[in-house]
Amino acid sequence: MFDTWQEARDHLDEVRVAMRTNAWVDPDIGNRTVESYANEMIERRRKKKKNNNTTKNYASHIRCHIIPFAGKRAAQTLKRRDTMAFVDFLMERPGIDEASTVVQVFKTWRLLMNYMIDEDVPLPGNIVSRIDLPEVTERESVALTPEQVAALAAAMREVEPRWEILVWIGACAGLREGEAFGLKRSAVAWQNDLIYIEEQRQEGKAAGLKTKASYATLPVDHFLIERLAEHIARYPQVPPVSEDRERERRRMGYQVPPDESLIVTNRYGRPMRGSAFNVKWRTAVERAGLPSGTRFHALKHFYTTRLGASGHDPKTVQALSRHAEFSETWDTYAHPPLAVEGITVRAFGALFASADGERTAA
């Protein structure tokens, strides 16, 4: 409130000048809570169909760490010292055992601070600048040998036979986990030893790939084509059941899932989910005698290194690994462009000849 009419008029004049020069800031805009801005940021990402896994990670960081620390604070009251206090809060928080987790959650905090600044919340310009973070020890990459890959495939065959093919897809085509889950029968050029990498699966749902460079028409070793054909013949989408089981299913209202042409599904014929696969993966890793931290991505690393060792030049290896940018002619192709013209990949069949024999005998 104003004491005099003149004070009110002077204030109105100041506001008008500020609005004409784009310098006016709504005095109430920073009174909303940090939690409300955080939820708004996540909801906007979802509406814009941003990467689902990334959005889920942000939402988890916000729910588990940011809201408990500052969720009820008015956004405009935050200072740089609060960011430093947040890092200390994370380092002392039960359940956070690695410096890398602190850094990842801090990145979500930084993203939220920048989002609020973009929403005209009056925050200090240096609120996330020059923050001292804990040193992160780089994760040691597991370099698999052909023998270890074969042992991993054999272990997965014992743990969950339907999912052995995922080991071969990762090792012989370099697909990421979600890409392997999303590979379809229709995405394999069976007579030409090609696969079209066009989508991935996240939480069972179709999603775009990580980057534009991830899309490709990829030449693969015929060894992999044979494994894919063998898998499809051996594991139909929905395994046959006894007549009694079929009657029980009908009684319970069971419906056969739609055929999405996926090469790999769970035992109920539904799209793969990472949570279920990772349980079996860890068991197979242990049974194969591999380091406990071996991730599915180690198969992509194996793929890249074996291509280089087989004589392909570095640029070809980079293209086959789908780490390169595509040309501007991208949208003119019915399928994504061929990763490398005139290349036949034969780097894997000879490596796993013995494993192939063991599988056939089994």
TrEMBL record:
GO terms for biological process: DNA integration; DNA recombination. GO terms for molecular function: DNA binding. Residues 139-348 form the Tyr recombinase domain. SUPFAM superfamilies: DNA breaking-rejoining enzymes. Keywords: DNA recombination, DNA-binding. InterPro entries: DNA_brk_join_enz, Integrase-like_cat_sf, Integrase_catalytic, Integrase_recombinase_N, Tyrosine_recombinase_XerCD. It comes from the Bacteria. Belongs to the 'phage' integrase family. This is Site-specific integrase.
